[in-house]
Design a protein that fits this description.
- By secondary structure, the chain is α+β, with helices and mostly antiparallel strands.
- Helix content is 23%, strand content 36%.
- Strands 3, 4, 6, 7, 8 and 9 form a six-stranded antiparallel sheet that branches. Strands 1-2-5 form a three-stranded antiparallel sheet, with no helix packed on it.
- This is Fibronectin type-III domain-containing protein.
- Keywords: Membrane, Transmembrane, Transmembrane helix.
Length: 149
């Protein structure tokens, strides 16, 4: 059977995924699948939700043997997470992380809408051009009336 993962810890939330760090144990010579289980804190009678990820789906951004394990985001709240490895030989024991607070950061509704600014500037330029043209037309008519009298 595979060995218990050596490390398992929460890193962050990125692109609607929960990102954990995991250091794999020995796989017993066969590809292993990691089974992540989670449940809300204080609800020990609730069923554990399960997400499975194969060993080859882990991302290896580090050179120290720690991999990214990503699961789909779950609703905000405080959760207990545990993971174990399994393969065709069997399962290992679970390793658990401290309770994790999942909280989605609000989207920043700032920034300038470039289209609105460009539209406003364009409209202002058109108004100024119309005023200048009307002024020259009025001046020309006034000059023609003065010359005819």
């Amino acid at each position: 059977a595979p060995s218990v993962p050596k490390k398992f810890y929460f890193i962050n939330i990125k692109d609607d995924l929960l990102v954990f760090g995991i250091e794999k144990g020995f796989n017993g010579g066969h590809e292993q699948t990691f089974v992540v289980e989670y449940q809300p804190v204080g609800m020990s009678d609730a069923a554990w939700s399960v997400f499975m990820i194969s060993e080859d789906a882990l991302e290896d951004p580090f050179t120290n043997g720690t991999y990214y394990l990503k699961i789909p985001k779950i609703p905000d709240g405080q959760y207990i997470f545990k993971v174990h490895a399994e393969n065709k030989i069997g399962n290992c024991s679970s390793i658990q992380v401290e309770p994790v607070e999942i909280k989605t950061e609000p989207e920043v509704k700032g920034g300038t809408n470039v289209a609105a600014v460009a539209g406003g500037i364009g409209a202002a330029v058109v108004v100024v051009v119309i005023i200048v043209v009307l002024f020259f037309i009025w001046r020309r008519k006034a000059s023609m009336l003065k010359n005819s009298s």
